[in-house]
Amino acid sequence: MLNKKRGFTLIELLVVIAIIGILASVVLSSLLIARDRGSNAAIKENLSNIRTQAELYFANNDDYGDDVAGDCNTIGTMFEDDVTVNLSISAIFKANGGNALTCTADDGRAGLGMSASSWAVSSPL
Q1: Number of other residues whose CB lies within 10 A of the CB of residue 87
Q2: Which of 13, 34, 95, 111 is most buried, by the most CB atoms less than 10 A from its CB?
Q3: Contact 94/113 with Cβ under 8 angstroms?
Q4: For residue 2, what pLDDT band results from cuts at 50, 70 and 90?
């Protein structure tokens, strides 16, 4: 009776497969969290770039363009006229998964179309 076969039992193989599955799910969830944090960091960096470029735009034009509410592609505003701001807005749109992005420029008075003296950009993280 020296003819014993060496190998793994079915239960041992199932336990190993279950452990590998649990480890894989933990790693995948960690990767998704890291990806979300990376996207949020990219959005914040692009918002910072817009802030710096807006200061340069204001220094050159004495305003931020025409009043606009909600539309990031309005001609006559820094959001459309400035290439760097436009590229940053596009990058934010891509990084947040295509969610709504809001751009506003305002002079503090009712009505659109006047020279804006303040601006804001918002994006969901």
Answers
A1: 14
A2: 95
A3: no
A4: low
